[in-house]
Design brief:
Blueprint lengths: L1 E4 L4 E4 L11 E10 L21 H26 L6 H12 L5 H22 L6 E3 L10 E3 H12 L5 E8 L3 E8 L4 H18 L7 E10 L4
Parallel strand pairs: 7-8
Antiparallel strand pairs: 1-2, 3-8, 4-5, 6-7
Length: 227
Amino acid sequence: MSESQGSEGTTQRLPVIERTADQDQLDRSASAAAYGPPPALTGEGGGEHRFWSARKVPAGITAVLLLLVAGIFLYDIAAVRAHRPAMHWRRELARQLAQRPLDDTWVLVGAGVAAALGLWLILLAVTPGLRTVLPMRRTHPDVRAGLHRDAAATVLRDRAMEVAGVQSVRVRASRAKADVRAISHFRELDDVRADLDVTLTEAIRGLGLARPPALSVHVARTTRKKG
């Protein structure tokens, strides 16, 4: 993939290198540190909110169920108006509701299910969703951009592989934190971690995110399994 680095807009193809975990064993000599997000630039951060999800599947299911229920009730009401008997299930439901007390087990279960579904729909209506898309800084008032968390993790992993002494890297990116775990096969661990700190801080800034995630770096040495 291509990555934009710095403010000059140059691009560079970066290697993607992976190594299976069962090939190496971490020793006890490890260096780890947690950092806050990079200092914000002028006019950066705080103003962009998450993208709203269309939630087509829940909306479609709800619309279909409401359409079916409304159609059945409309047909039954029209049949009663035409002097035909109401459907058996509606007569039985009305009888059960009239006879059962409010503290009946089935009444409480039905009310609980209806309340849970209602709360779920309200939660979907008031929350934006799309947690995997990170909002980017707005450079034009009419354009909004977002970066997928997997793409951000790939960029950080590729930049980390450029640091001398890094053998393999695993990156997990979320909205609030970028967790980087690197394996080093030469150089001092503290030196590798310090270089990763500088490189990844610059890389996070280069992503152009509205709210840069905090950086957590862990560097460990590998030793070959004996026997």
